[in-house]
Amino acid sequence: MAAKIPRLAIMGHPNAGKSSVVATLTENDQVAIDKRAGTTTESDVYPVVIDGVTVIEFIDTPGFQNPNAILEWFQANLDTRDLARAFVAAHRADPLFSHDCALLEPVAEGAGIILVVDGSKRIKEKDRVEIELLRLTARPRMAILNNLTNQNRYMSQWQDALGKAFNSVREFNAHRATYSERIKLLEALKSIDQRWEALLENAIDAFKKDWERRTDQAVGAILDLLKEALSYRVSKTVKDNKIVFKSGRERVKAEIMDEFEDGLRRMEIAAQAQIRAHFRHNVWNVASDSILNQDLLSDEVGQALGLSRRQLALVGMAAGAASGVTIDLATAGHSLGTGAFFGAAAGGVLGMVGGKVLAKLDIERAPGTHRFTMGPVTNPRFPFVLLDRSILYSARAMNWAHGRQAAEEDAPDRVPEKVIDKRGFTEELSSAQQRELARFFSAARRGRDLEREDVCRTIIKNVLRGVALSEIDSRGDL
Fold it and tell me: pLDDT tens across 218-266, in order?
């Protein structure tokens, strides 16, 4: 074929979900998606550009306006070598067929076809007409059953009808498709025409390499967040006359605690923005009851994520974490521990995560002043909670379909969410991996050389890779 990259025209009824399919396959949530029928009136090209090179193009087309007339013309001209090209040439100037010519123009120029149908609805005569006229174009073609509801009674009928006219038929929910499902669909496209195999293989290879790079970037953002958060300190120098009374001292403690906790929150928000950008999300709506929508330091987040008490105790004893924290790890929340006690004696312990203190507050006295310093984080559970939330956020970014913006989340017949346990990812790592993470956290807390960073990078990347390939539950509904 003449084209150097695969070009695929997305076709189907108005409001069948064509634009959602394009948005999801191109990872472009800026594709105009309108739930009203017939909102796409001309063909729009959406290239997928990787490293400055276009590797594949998807073309969002208007819906058929006169399918019966087109089929009649095709059937009357069966001896014509290229029906799509001939029809466009014959009707381009006819206002009656302006939408139809816009739809068929990419096909006339050699594009393959992806027909999108709503598998929840009954097959009508108009559907059969469109299926037949697309068969007569003789272009490589795939049909997508874009069933966005839990109504499956007509799916087998669609499979039978489409299987007679299309080279490949696949179920694909454009509102829910994960990275793995997108790649499988692209892989299936290779079967629609042997001449397309090499071009599609190149495009798929570019997708995979780009995804690997973006996963590495997400891991980097997570590691940077952990290092910054675990070594974070906040200091405030106060004149003696400001803390003569207990109320003044307590006010300063409250202020420095708020500043410390807000600093941790800001770091997480900045890291999340990086992760979101790596996976090309502009539209980002998180349910109000999602763990990702709760405060980082809330009891709900602390209870849902991080290691169990038993795991934390075993990791602490085996890893020999930072001094002043080891006893906390070993007792697993049953006491404040010696390190926390000394912190309290020096000026008080502020903040709690999972029933444990977040960080110690130290007070240094100098002539006429007191210097209050909070940090770094000493809570042994917090870094596992923060890591779990970061992985969870990345998992959602990786597998949240860009076409989901058009989903009717409150529709009574929508596909139900998966029922999943509210727990993090670190609980399911091996004991050896948990110990490596604890050692890394300990080194980060003390600002020492992070010789274990590469090991932790591999651990985190393997989790994200498993999420992307659907080998690990992405907990996308938390």
Answer: 999 999 999 999 999 999 988 887 776 778 888 888 899 999 999 999 9
CA dihedral 288, 289, 291, 293 (to 10 degrees): 10
* DSSP assigned state of 56: E
**Structural contact between residues 406 and 36, judged by C-beta atoms closer than 8 angstroms:** no
CA distance 280 to 8: 22
Residue of 47, 65, 52, 49 whose CA lies nearest to 11: 65
- For residue 277, the surrounding DSSP H or E stretch is helix 246-278
Distance CA 322, CA 316 (A): 9
Cα R_g (the chain), whole angstroms: 29
The label of the residue with tokens 């050389």 reads 449
Given this model, what pLDDT does residue 1 score? Answer: 40
Angle between helices 382-399 and 246-278 in degrees, nearest 10: 30
Backbone dihedral angles phi then psi of residue 143, each to the nearest 5 degrees? -115, 140
How many CB atoms sit inside 10 A of residue 361's CB?
23
Find how far residue 426's CA is from the centre of its chain: 19
Bridge-based pairing of strands 168-171 and 369-377 is unpaired
| Stated pTM of the model | 0.86
SS3 content of the chain, % helix, strand, coil (to 5): 50, 15, 35
- From residue 462, alpha-carbon distances to 179, 467, 468 in Å are 15, 9, 10
When pLDDT is averaged across residues 126-133 and rounded to a whole number, the result is 95
Of 400, 401, 399, 389, the C-alpha closest to 460 is 389
